[in-house]
Amino acid sequence: MQPTSFSYQSMGTSWEITIWDKIDDTKLKKIKKQITSGSRDFDKTFSRFKPNSFITKVSKKKGKIKVPKDFVKMLELYFDLYDLSEKKVNPLIGQALSDMGYDSNYSLRPKEKISKVPDLKKMVSIIDDENVFTTIPLLFDFGALGKGYFVDRIKDILEENNIERFLVNGSGDIYYKGPPNSLRAGLEHPMDDTKVIGVINMGNGAMCASSGNRRKWRNYHHIINPITLAPANEIIATWVMADNAALSDALATCLFFVSPKNFENKFKFEYLILNKEMRVKKSEGFAAELF
User: Fold this and answer.
1) pLDDT in tens, the chain (291 residues)
2) Angle between helices 69-84 and 146-160 (to 10 degrees)
3) Which of 150, 222, 249, 253 could form a disulfide with 215 if both were Cys (CB 3.0 to 4.6 A apart)?
């Protein structure tokens, strides 16, 4: 059966949803509305590039702050990863990125002085599923896992509508549900987006990729070490497969800075890492056909 698909723009990138189930126009229209309106609301809430977003408003507050439940859920994953990544994946990097020129105006003009990134666990605590406490005003940036988190939200919408085979593609952050080995996914070459370095057969689950080639300016790209304030340059691309896209997305960033061994006792995942010499390191379960 030929699949049905639709695409849209949100969060500064392209999204495509593909459905293999037989589906009538009324149900497809309902699903499309749920996904696109949810995406719009998520962006309005969590984008630090929007002057009226919740994230921007929070950056001017301190103390006990009421937040959306999604805020706490994403923050909980950051807390899990913070020590395991040796403090190199930190949602408090927002102000430093803005100072580097990756700001709300996309000026791409670094300031003379770049703000230090605060210690996450010293500056933020989670009170409950709707409240956090911050010691100073903080500009959060959930970019290391936010797109993956919303991929999972779309997956939930599709399952709630009893869709059995589908693909969610958030510009390289994907979730597939369907028969094992029924979808071949290309691994984009980080230096040439017209090529792939290999392909892999997808089963049920998520695969997210990360690379510094998409958002580059001056001497920076968007994958920044919050301790040194320098871009990650030894690794040029990562791919991670896991049960959910939020974890896949987050680990794809973590692996630019630290060894996969840091996370193996806590999480179940498979990975492929490409360094600047085009050498590959991968887990046994990442069964890609490399070219």
Assistant:
1) 789 999 999 998 999 999 999 999 999 999 999 999 999 999 999 999 999 999 999 999 999 999 999 999 999 999 999 999 999 999 999 999 999 998 888 888 899 999 999 999 999 999 999 999 999 999 999 999 999 999 999 999 999 999 999 999 999 899 999 998 889 999 999 888 889 999 999 889 999 999 876 666 777 778 999 999 999 889 999 999 999 999 999 999 999 999 999 999 999 999 999 999 999 999 999 989 998
2) 130
3) 222
Nearest alpha carbon to residue 26 among 4, 46, 44, 10: 4
Give the residue among 148, 154, 159 at the shortest CA–CA distance from 21.
159
SS3 9: strand
Asked if 53 and 47 count as a contact pair (C-beta separation under 8 A), the reply is: yes
**What's the rounded Cα separation, in Å, for the pair 86 and 256?**
12
DSSP string, 166-207: EEEEETTEEEEESSTT-EEEEEEETTEEEEEEEEEEE-SEEE
218: DSSP letter: T
The Cα–Cα gap between 151 and 167 comes to 10
Q: How far, in Å, are 44, 109, 129, 210 from residue 226 at the CA level?
A: 25, 19, 26, 17
